[in-house]
Prior knowledge:
CATH topology of the largest domain: Rna Polymerase Sigma Factor, Chain: A
Amino acid sequence: MKTTVPASPIDQLEADQEIITKVLAGDRNSFGVLIQRYSDPLYRHALGMTGSPDVAEDILQMSFIKAFQHLSEVRGRFDAWVFRIVANGCKDWLKNIRRTHLSYEEDDQPTSYATPAEELDRTELRDDLDVALGQLPPSLREAFIMKHVEGRSYEEMADLLGTTVGALKMRVHRAREALQALLEEKYA
């Protein structure tokens, strides 16, 4: 039985660069490989930032259009470059929309709670957490979601956001403190 070894970051960088070269040479259909490769993690990030599956899908679509239009500007890793486009799209949307509630209606995770009362408590806590996340500044929300929802390392976050590990640790720390303060108002 043959096992597949995951591509190293260098192999991935080279593979992405080959696709970019093909697209820039006129093979527009090759861009679909990049879309397929990066759509899921980018969508999850946009969903976490916006709380709306429809908005996340729209941001992702507009981001890939922008990426295609500016493909010749890629320097370094395509995944980090396109992530910044999606992250900026989320921040722009958050600046332009006044909202008080994030929704995770698409949450189809099976419940482990035995009683309806426990399920109701879980739903209420989730709603309160969504509201609290919605009150955070976008930079803190983004850092919190990347770390605690997406499970990224600080090093990966720093690479994707073009900042330092120390700055991200501070953002996550401030986000936790702000969430704790917001939730303590109700649960203290």
